[in-house]
């Protein structure tokens, strides 16, 4: 921890739809800022103009809004900060940290081929790096140079990573980084440093695919006389096949989980456990997560996504929700299932309370809820054949007659069922199972008296007659 106020950031590139592996890299810096009374900044790194899309930006913003990972500042867009980058570039050049390099792409390719043939690490050889007494090649006519950063040639660059421990690189292994292209536009590693300095970032919490960028960035921070932030490089998130999670490997956009009926707090709970732990706690609230979160319990090994586990976590959160709150959350999903919100009524919270233990997502719950509001239903053919048989027709007829006369309460319906069973000389399953199939389409429902009371006399009578 530094003496300064904690300031973290999430800096995605909008070059593809953000997936769960990406969004976990937003969750931890958000949580660390919240846990320490700090600020969380959102920065969109959109300098790859050819691949960046507004649709990808929208998914980032929608996904973070859904998960309630609200930034305190931003979004900032790198493409809107080009003048600032060029200003700092000029400062570095004036201080002698940067030099023009006129080596062509063809020359670089030839150099790399020679190095690989000699079993050497392919790297820029410093041809245009100025040094006392060194004579540089003549400047070719009509060629715009790249600008390279003068990487220190001796010693080591090192940091104590909050996730991976001590990491060191020999400076002699690092070549001189291109920090501006021939057209003057600055490159990624340089822009990141300027942004982190200007935004006062104290902790950089990001994926471990950035480890090799970090020594470069530390050199740039130091050349600019800036405080080097604390780094924590998070292990990769793997998909269910054990490969790095990516859109190419079938990863879904974060917003798809929203549309599939997952709860934001359940998703936060699940993602938190994909690289961090608090003892053996599996299910916890957002408030508990923020109370417990620190960088000392980050895992060092890759987390593997498991959709069955995610569904289980979501089911636990769904089950724990207040019925009224759940009714509000499920309403848009019920609408999508074909029931206008205007048709929903005071029964909705009670229906949610009755069925939530059987559901893993809001979509599951909506599919149950709609059965109480539509006129006709589909019935499970296997259940129908098994339970709605000629043998039970007299029992169903007696039940239909009883249900038309009964006082409308769960207790009175339960008493009527008992009376029918006694009069017909049958056991509960011989009545309850066919009634379930005929009224809700499946033999597997909660308590039949509770279901019937909520369904209402009119719908029950109509569905019992419909074969």
Automatic annotation (TrEMBL):
One of its GO terms (biological process) is glutamyl-tRNA aminoacylation. GO terms for molecular function: ATP binding; glutamate-tRNA ligase activity; tRNA binding; zinc ion binding. It comes from the Bacteria. GO terms for cellular component: cytosol. Residues 325-465 form the Aminoacyl-tRNA synthetase class I anticodon-binding domain. Its EC number is 6.1.1.17. ATP binds at residue 247. It catalyses: tRNA(Glu) + L-glutamate + ATP = L-glutamyl-tRNA(Glu) + AMP + diphosphate. SUPFAM superfamilies: An anticodon-binding domain of class I aminoacyl-tRNA synthetases, Nucleotidylyl transferase. Coiled coil: none annotated. It is found in: Cytoplasm. A motif ('HIGH' region) lies at residues 12-22. The keyword Cytoplasm applies. It is an enzyme of class 6 (ligase). Residues 5-312 form the Glutamyl/glutaminyl-tRNA synthetase class Ib catalytic domain. A motif ('KMSKS' region) lies at residues 244-248. Gene3D superfamilies: 1.10.10.350, Glutamate-tRNA synthetase, class I, anticodon-binding domain 1 (1.10.8.70), HUPs (3.40.50.620). Belongs to the class-I aminoacyl-tRNA synthetase family. Glutamate--tRNA ligase type 1 subfamily. Monomer. Catalyzes the attachment of glutamate to tRNA(Glu) in a two-step reaction: glutamate is first activated by ATP to form Glu-AMP and then transferred to the acceptor end of tRNA(Glu). NCBIfam families: gltX_bact (TIGR00464). This is Glutamate--tRNA ligase. It comes from Paenacidovorax caeni.
